Amino acid sequence: MYLERKEDLSIVYFLKDKFSATPLINIVDAYPQEDLVIPTISVESDLLEYIDFELGERTGTRVRTWYIDIFAANKSQRDDFAYKILNDLKDGVLVYDYDLGFPNSTVIGHLNILKRRVKVVRIDATLVSKMYYRTTITILAQNDLL
Fold first, then answer.
1. Is 83 helix (H, G, I), strand (E, B) or coil?
2. pLDDT per residue over 73-112, tens digit each?
3. How many other C-beta atoms are found inside a 10 Å radius of the C-beta of residue 18?
4. What is the pLDDT of residues 126-144, one digit of tens each?
5. Hey, what domains does the chain have and what are their CATH numbers?
6. How far apart are CA 13 and CA 93, in angstroms?
């Protein structure tokens, strides 16, 4: 499995762990394509950027962007989930080697969160059959143990 996929899964399982006390929440690895179950948190990777620079051995750095979308039943639930995620991400996310299986995974990296952004997405009630509240958290991260 590619390192990038292990990073994706690490964010999904990080969120599942953080919301383990909220069993009714649906956490998915990708933007929901089927019927939307409320509440849902989805994780989708976006930009993967390699920044090359030369300092001795021509090493560079790599930064990634993820979108964490929250679909909630009401404003309070949406905001509670968003603020929890925002605060839980401040120390970053450990990256595990999922090729070893569960629960034998070992830590192979750490996503240092360089930027966190929360944006409320306004939903037009006339366009959806069931009203819900949505926000998107955008994170920019660098794996600092590589």
1. helix
2. 999 999 999 999 999 999 999 999 988 776 667 899 999 9
3. 17
4. 777 677 899 999 999 998 8
5. 3-143 (3.30.2000.10)
6. 10
